[in-house]
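Bug report (template v2)

What were you trying to do?
Predict the complex of my protein with calcium ion.

What happened?
Run completed; filing so the output is reviewed.

Input:
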Amino acid sequence: MRILLVEDDPDLSRQLRQALADADYAVDHAADGEEASYLGETEPYDAIILDLGLPKIDGTAVLEGWRRAQVTTPVLILTARGAWSEKVAGFDAGADDYLTKPFHTEELLARLRALLRRSAGHAAPSLVCGAVRLDPRAARATVAGEPLRLTSLEYRLLHYLMMHQGRVISRTELVEHLYDQDFDRDSNTIEVFVGRLRKKIGPERVETVRGLGYRLVEVADPAPRA
Ligand code: CA
């Protein structure tokens, strides 16, 4: 899952970027409204965290611009304490959720998980596909109850595939949602990660659809262990 964090306060930005990275998200950061506006319109994020008080263009105007440009990405706004009219303006501009500063990082992460889940059409907090289960709260996954040891990128890959299970996902889409802006984006590396994930969860669970991409398929029985 790839997140855009828009926040101009350097300390808070640093803290949130770290917390998001620790939760296995790919994170891009914008420190002003202009950069935010550009990134939000050009990059396919899974969710956006948007501070409303920003230099250059204020957050509400940035959000209005995205919605005008048909950007449907879920947006969680960060508002100043006591500024109830900011919240109203934010929701009217197209926000999906809000948090008032100061907030606990844990609450932000919980709201983000809920937002991502709802936008992908899942109501339950854990994702299940056959014998594979992924719990975004703990950032862990199991196959038939056995814990999987996944690297951060393998986890992101599995998380994305599980969010969109049953649908064919192209390599380009995976590159766009698993890596941040600064990552060396070579779509061939996706094959490598898919290969590693297959080894860990059972090769039959990730189907290759020739010329189109990959699809996570439901396999009820645990894969036979060699
Ligand atoms: Ca601010």
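What did the reviewer find?
The first strand starts at residue 2 and ends at 6. The chain has a mean pLDDT of 92.
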